[in-house]
Amino acid sequence: MNRSGLVALALCGAGTALAQDAGLSVSVGARAWYTEWTTFSYYTETVNGKDVNKALIQSSAGHKLALVPVVAVRYGNFVGTLSAFPSTRFSFANGDNGTRKEFDLNLGYVLMPGLTATLGYKKISQRDGPTRYEPAGPIFGLSGNAPLAGAYSLYGAFGLGRLKTPASDDKNVVKFKADYRLTEVGVASTFNSDWLLRRWTLTAGYRIQVMGSKEAFGTQDGRDTTQGFTFGALATF
After folding, report:
1. Alpha carbon distances (Å) from 89 to 42, 61, 127, 209
2. How far apart are CA 133 and CA 135, in angstroms?
3. Domain that holds residue 181
4. How many angstroms separate the CA atoms of 177 and 167, rounded?
5. Residue 59 lies in a domain
6. Any idea of the CA torsion for 209, 28, 8, 78, to the nearest 10 degrees?
7. Alpha carbon distance 39, 208 (integer Å)
8. Helix, strand and coil in the chain, % to nearest 5
């Protein structure tokens, strides 16, 4: 296994295997994600004193930098990662504000050198004032890496899932089922370390997550996208 193999699993949320180390290895790091959030909302009109949704619209927020901590573990061909997108406030072009946070837990198995399959759980929490949208569910992922010259390699991670908002009688909880897709590609560089650590891994890539909420307005699906350049650093012990 190429030494940059930890890259996508640990820094993408669904990704490649850890480098081939003897016994147990633990990696700790963070990903800086310069992300833009575009989501769906509604054009409303007041009818008989009540706000009524008249159309589905898209609304974009400005770019925001988020620092995502990551922990990864490997033993033999089994791998696992935990990461969290901290609660981040976004300001939208239409004047609205919203917060977003994410939680990812993935377990995987190295199918062959450079290719890992993962099964995980993802939860996304979005809030706009009192309104909450909190889809969660299973994610299946595949990831891989291919060596380039010297310490450099290409990596890629892909994930698919079906998310569902929890049942609730609270009128402020938005209820949808959503298809989820993740894609991240980039370049990694790995350096050995002679002091405490086994190595450092640095990454640079582009990440995009898409949720398609089923029948958000009549037969129309709502589209929610977060995307942007990402830079990561990972220390392996």
Report:
1. 20, 10, 9, 18
2. 6
3. 3-36+65-236
4. 11
5. no
6. -120
7. 13
8. 5, 75, 20
pLDDT of residue 71: 94
Q: Which helix (H) or strand (E) holds 139?
A: strand 136-147
DSSP conformational letter for 196:
S
Is residue 216 in some structural domain? Answer: yes
User: In this structure, are residues 65 and 34 in contact, taking their beta carbons and an 8 Å threshold?
Assistant: yes
88 within a domain of the structure (yes/no): yes
From CA 13, how far away is CA 7, in angstroms rounded?
A: 10
Pairing of strands 115-128, 199-217: unpaired
Domain count, the chain: 1
- Check residues 34 and 214 and name the one with the higher pLDDT: 34
Contact assessment for residue 139 and residue 182, using Cβ atoms and an 8 Å cutoff: yes
Nearest to 93 by CA among 60, 52, 48, 44: 60
Instruction: Answer yes or no: are the C-beta atoms of 155 and 143 closer than 8 Å.
Output: yes
Instruction: Tell me whether residue 46 is in a domain.
Output: no
Is the dihedral angle over the CA atoms 28, 34, 40, 43 positive or is it negative?
positive
Rounded to an integer, what distance in angstroms lies between the CA atom of residue 124 and that of residue 164?
10
Q: Mean pLDDT throughout 47-52?
A: 72
How far apart are the C-alpha atoms of 107 and 124, rounded to whole Å? Answer: 18
Quick one: which of 77, 72, 66 has its CA closest to 11? 72
Q: What is the CATH number of the domain that holds 25?
A: 2.40.128
Q: 0.90 cut: is pTM over it?
A: no
CA distance 159 to 139: 6
User: Does residue 2 register a pLDDT over 70?
Assistant: no
Question: Measuring CA to CA, which residue among 47, 56, 108 is closest to residue 80?
Answer: 108
